[in-house]
Amino acid sequence: MPVFASGVCHSVCVSEIVAVREEEEEETKKEEEEKSGRDNGSWKKIRERQDKDRGLSFTVSYVERCRQHRWRCAHVTFTCPQVALCHRWVNTIREQLAAISSRPTQLLVYINPYGGKRQAKRVYKQKVAPLFALAGIGTHVIVTEYANHARDHLREEAELKKYDGVVCVGGDGMFSELVHGLVWRTQKDGGVDVNRPEQTLIACSLRIGIIPAGSTDCICFATVGTNDPVTSALHIIVGDSQPMDVSSVHHDDTFLRYSVSLLGYGFYGDVLTDSERKRWMGPARYDLAGLKMFLTHHHYEGTVTYLPAGAGVGEPRDASRCRSGASVDQADSKEDSENADAGWRTIRGKFLAINAASMSCACPRSPKGLSPAAHLADGTADLILVRKCSRVNFLRHLLRHASKDDQFDLSFVEVHRVRRFRFTPRHCHSDSDSDLELDLLDGKRQIFGQICRDHPACGCAPAFSSWNCDGEILPHTAIDVRVHCQLIQLFARGIEEAAMFDELAPACSA
Ligand SMILES: Nc1ncnc2c1ncn2[C@@H]1O[C@H](COP(=O)(O)OP(=O)(O)OP(=O)(O)O)[C@@H](O)[C@H]1O
Ligand SMILES: CCCCCCCCCCCCC/C=C/[C@@H](O)[C@H](CO)NC(=O)CCCCC
Ligand SMILES: [Ca+2]
Q: So what's the pLDDT on residue 81?
């Protein structure tokens, strides 16, 4: 839509228009705001100009790209020689916007006041709600009162037909609550038994939006490219869609949890366990727990079996990255999952970490992520095995998550692209070489672990770690994991290529 404003040509893509308003409407809003005492002075310029142009100008609010994948809402005011022409412009743009069926008009919003730096309510009120209002999006907002409030509300109560999407204001844990609520509800409505690992799950139709206000926020970062509430709100408003894989985690024939980012045993499991005791510290809890667990340097013994992804989905050490519209993230890769015949493989050993990343897990701590070439929606996960090694070597591996060097290019690290995997821990007190499978003892593992930790004289490190499943601790160590291709949809478009962002783009202010 190229039009002239103050003699300058502005080209705005209709799909990236947030709203269009005639100046008179803005004046009315301004007066209303003044009456209700919410004036912040930002309308002053528009008002001065508008007094002489009343009825002859309209303002288009649109997406403007800034540096580092950030978007902001910019405004441009156009003046017309006649009032009728101005009306025509406004009506035409409104009709075009209304014709974009992918845009949401009603959203169900859950705010977690407890996550991250406990700023979610403020972030939503100050940065997001005004944008939704500007775009004419109706919202039903629920501030959660306890853990799993959002999940249970989605499962049992929410009238989902009324909404075009659900939004969480929080971190990865809050996103996980929405995934669990929606996936559970969809399977229940479709008569699917979620306890059977072999069962094909039904994809959820409602999209999920994430306004980042947590500690890691890796799902937002890896699907949008930045953790910025305004950018995420704009992706929701323009109606973006990004499919995403979800892994189901079972213990025998019991469903445990779904995972969309990291399933980590050993290092990341121990970091999470320790960090939960330090939640009062906010996001810094992970740094302290990370340092402590690095120094502790526990390794764990067990058996990993996995089903390789097979051909057509690339390799974990490819140079290519998952980017917006990437061809590998297409539904046809589902075909491969059905035909995978490469057969199961088995690896036994002592590991510092066993990580499965269904996506890159990029986050501000590690901008390229745990597995930089992993894809959001290809039906696979990257299984990373870090074998027992020296502290120095483990540090080399960890440091490479934050540098350009390849964290997999080390003799004690291996990585496989998989569709399924299983893990069985081995008991530390076993003298025999035979695998003592711990399924039976799983429930008692906390006690055993405690005995070993509390009695250094026994010279035995804890036998078990815990699984970190998207930031939640799993109750079992022996697990069976299966990746479900494109089970959910997000209000996102994947990380845009750098070329989409003008090198000279302004550095957006908050
Ligand atoms: N009102 C509440 N009171 C207590 N806990 C809550 C409440 N609402 C949600 N939760 C729980 O808070 C936990 C943490 O939330 P969230 O993921 O939003 O933040 P975080 O853990 O700081 O961030 P991240 O997961 O990105 O590291 C989740 O397990 C969620 O289930
Ligand atoms: C200078 C030293 C550099 C060290 C680099 C360490 C590498 C960091 C990689 C971070 C990977 C995060 C993976 C995402 C996990 C989330 O599902 C989970 C919930 O939000 N967060 C954590 O478990 C929090 C995990 C935090 C671990 C520290
Ligand atoms: Ca994937």
A: 87
Q: Is residue 26 part of a domain?
A: yes
Q: Ligand 2 centroid vs 292 CA: distance in angstroms? A: 14
* Position 373 in a domain: yes
- Residue 272 Cβ < 6 Å to ligand 2: yes
Write the single-letter amino acid at 135: A
CB proximity list for 106: less than 8 A, separation 6 or greater: 137, 138, 139, 140, 162, 163, 164
Residue with CA closest to ligand 2 atom 22: 471
Indicate whether 45 and 154 sit together in one domain. no
What ipTM goes with this model?
0.96
Q: Is residue 480 annotated as part of the catalytic site, yes or no?
A: no
> Which ligand 1 atom is nearest residue 168's CA?
18
Tell me the ligand closest to 173's alpha carbon.
1
- Mean pLDDT, rounded, for 348-357: 98
Q: What is the pLDDT of residues 191-230, one digit of tens each?
A: 999 999 999 999 999 999 999 999 999 999 999 999 999 9
Residue at 421: amino acid letter: F
Rounded CA separation 397/298 (Å): 15
* The ligand 2 atom nearest the CA atom of 262: 17
Domain residue limits at 182: 102-240
In-domain check, residue 493 = no
CA 259 to centroid of ligand 1, rounded, Å: 15
Residues 355 and 400 in one domain: yes
Last residue of a domain, one of 215, 240, 265: 240
- Is residue 399 within 6 Å of ligand 2 at its C-beta? yes
Q: Are residue 147 and residue 65 in the same domain, yes or no?
A: no
Three-state DSSP class for 410? coil
Evaluate whether 200 touches 334 at the Cβ level (below 8 Å): no
Condensed to tens digits (0 to 9), the pLDDT of residues 106-149 reads 999 999 999 999 999 999 999 999 999 999 999 999 999 999 99
- Tokens representing 189? 């409505």
Q: Please name the helix (run of DSSP H) or strand (run of DSSP E) that holds residue 305, with its range, or none.
A: strand 300-308
Tell me the whole-structure pTM to 2 decimals. Answer: 0.88
Digit-coded pLDDT (tens) for 441-473: 444 444 344 444 444 445 567 889 999 999 999
What average pLDDT does this structure show over 164-181? 98
Out of 84, 100, 116, a domain closes at: 100
Domain of residue 373, CATH code: 2.60.200.40
Asked if 472 and 453 sit in the same domain, the reply is yes
Catalytic residue chosen out of the listed positions 164, 172, 378, 382: 172
* Ligand whose nearest atom lies closest to the CA of 386: 2
Q: Which atom of ligand 2 is nearest to the CA of 272?
A: 23
Residue 398 within any structural domain of the chain: yes
Identify the DSSP state of 5.
E
